[in-house]
Amino acid sequence: MTTDNYIIGIAGGSGSGKSTFAKKLCEIFSDRVALVSCDNYYLPHGELTLEERRHLNYDAPEAFEFSLMVEQILALKRGEAVDCPVYDFTKHTRSDKVVRIEPKPIIIIDGILIFSKPELRRIMDMKIYVECDADERILRRVRRDTRERGREIDDIIEQYLATVKPMHNAHVEPTKAFADIIINGGMNSVALDVVKAKIEDILS
Asked: Mind listing the pLDDT tens digit for each residue in 172-182?
């Protein structure tokens, strides 16, 4: 079965507010939206120790299983439910759980590197890039990783300088060129109203 749906990609640097923007849209449109987070498609690397996994580069395109992500989004587009993997950031690997995602009229894809893959861009009807000052992004990352992911501040800073910042400059920032809309921060109420109006028009 094929469904009529509209696929929105929301990209931006780590801590830019893209997930906040995506969640606000999900709150507004409730059961008419399916959210697919790229974070859940990190490769598991179960063959490595926890210490080895801690030092992997998680901000390069090679860190993700994009083939599975594309496969599952295309299934949602066909009207099929999927079992999305769940990533455990405290252990730096996938958990043994999955989350069931049902097909919806609006599918939102959220992730730092989702515009880096042509096969993903091709199935998006709208591409939004969320910009944010680098200082603000690192502060948000520190707050999130200490509160939600059990990380130490020194480890967060080390990772940011070693991989997050250079990978952002090399792989994330350049994908802004593929965006249909560029917004300043995930709390941008004007941008939210614009996208909300577009979705309402599609749903009607």
From this structure: 999 999 999 99
For the chain, what is the domain count? 1
Kindly report, residue by residue over 68-113, the tens digit of the pLDDT.
Answer: 999 999 999 999 999 999 999 888 899 999 999 999 999 999 999 9
CA 153/CA 174 separation, integer angstroms: 28
Question: Is residue 69 in a domain?
Answer: yes
What CATH number does residue 196 fall under? 3.40.50.300
Is residue 20 assigned to a domain? yes
- Tell whether 1 is covered by a domain: no
Q: How far, in whole angstroms, is CA 37 from its chain's centroid?
A: 5
Query: Domain range for residue 58?
Result: 6-203
pLDDT of 2: 45
Report how far residue 160's alpha carbon sits from residue 138's, in angstroms, rounded to the nearest whole number.
8
Using alpha carbons only, how large is the chain's radius of gyration in Å? 17
Task: Tell me the CA distances in angstroms from 171 to 81, 85, 88, one per residue in order.
Answer: 31, 24, 24
Model pTM?
Answer: 0.87
Listed residue (68, 67, 109, 75) closest to 2, CA to CA: 75
Tokens of 58: 């998680």
Query: 42 phi and psi, to 5 degrees?
Result: -60, 140
Whether residue 138 lies inside any domain: the answer is yes
Query: pLDDT at position 115, please?
Result: 97
